[in-house]
Design brief:
- By secondary structure, the chain is mainly α.
- The protein has one domain (8-120).
- It is built from 3 helices and no strands.
- The chain has helices spanning 8-16, 54-81, 87-120.
- It is elongated and about 60 Å long.
Length: 134
């Protein structure tokens, strides 16, 4: 890892709160909820780290979290309304929770995946914007 790389736990925690996993800069990559910039405002780390599958990892995290929330809402709804299932309420609550978690989790899944990616593949030369490639 780079000389000043944080611990694994610190990188994961930073990712979960939408900070740059490397430097901790808040809102480092996101201009708005859905729009990103190419590099971190703090440490200039490139966003997608020259990896074609970067987006797939972030989408997988969001998919698992959203699917888990959907199943949990469905189970809680069935258990609390059994034996007279309130289908309409169950449908509305599962759709609402799924949309809420999916949209809310979008940027969080990207910064969390960046943390996981940094743990698996430490920063190499050339991954910091405006740095000389060696």
């Amino acid at each position: 890892m780079a000389q000043n790389s944080p611990s694994v736990l610190r990188m994961l925690c930073r990712g979960l709160i939408r900070r740059c996993a490397h430097c901790g800069e808040p809102g480092a990559f996101f201009i708005s909820w859905f729009k990103t910039q190419d590099h971190c405002r703090g440490c200039k780390l490139l966003w997608q780290r020259n990896t074609q599958g970067f987006v797939l990892g972030a989408l997988a995290i969001n998919f698992v979290l959203t699917g888990g929330a959907l199943i949990m809402t469905l189970v809680v709804g069935v258990v609390t309304s059994y034996p007279d299932l309130a289908i309409f309420k169950l449908l509305v609550s599962t759709i609402g929770v799924t949309l809420f978690v999916g949209v809310l989790g979008y940027p969080i899944s990207y910064t969390t995946w960046l943390a996981v990616d940094l743990i698996m593949r430490p920063i190499e030369s050339g991954e910091i914007a405006n740095s000389p490639i060696k």
